[in-house]
């Protein structure tokens, strides 16, 4: 499997894990490829997304409505998912 194929598989897996209640409310995705503990043998893909509901909740913590749309969701368990290649594990 090529690296690109592997990334596509990880993205598909991440997108499939999004709760149905959030799916129709998403307006932006983010993708971060990083190495856990700066170790290139431990690549990690983090998929995040923003929802209209989160933007509305963030308005009180933002300087304006535009900023609220890009504030991260404090409940990161649901908004960011880290996926690692098979055979690797988190420390």
| Helix/strand structural class | alpha+beta
Low-confidence stretches: 76-81
Read across the widest sheet, the strand sequence of neighbours is 1-2-3
Radius of gyration: 15 Å
Number of domains: 1
The CA-CA distance between the termini, in Å, is 25 Å
Would you summarize the structure shown here?
With 91 residues, the chain is an alpha+beta fold. The chain has one domain (3-83).
Question: How would you describe the overall organization of this protein?
Answer:
- With 91 residues, the protein is an alpha+beta fold.
- Helices cover 36% and strands 25% of the residues.
- It has a three-stranded antiparallel beta sheet.
- The longest helix has 14 residues, at 3-16.
- The radius of gyration is 15 Å and the shape is elongated.
Sum up the structure in keywords.
single chain, 91 residues, alpha+beta, three-stranded antiparallel β-sheet, 5 helices, 3 strands, 36% helix, elongated
């Amino acid at each position: 499997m090529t690296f690109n194929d592997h990334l596509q598989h990880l993205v598909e897996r991440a997108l499939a894990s999004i709760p149905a209640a959030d799916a129709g409310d998403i307006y932006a995705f983010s993708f971060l490829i990083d190495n856990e503990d700066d170790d290139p043998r431990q690549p990690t893909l983090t998929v995040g997304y923003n929802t209209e509901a989160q933007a509305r909740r963030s308005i009180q913590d933002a300087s304006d409505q535009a900023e609220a749309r890009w504030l991260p969701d404090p409940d990161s368990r649901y908004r960011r998912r880290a996926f690692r290649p098979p055979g690797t594990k988190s420390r």
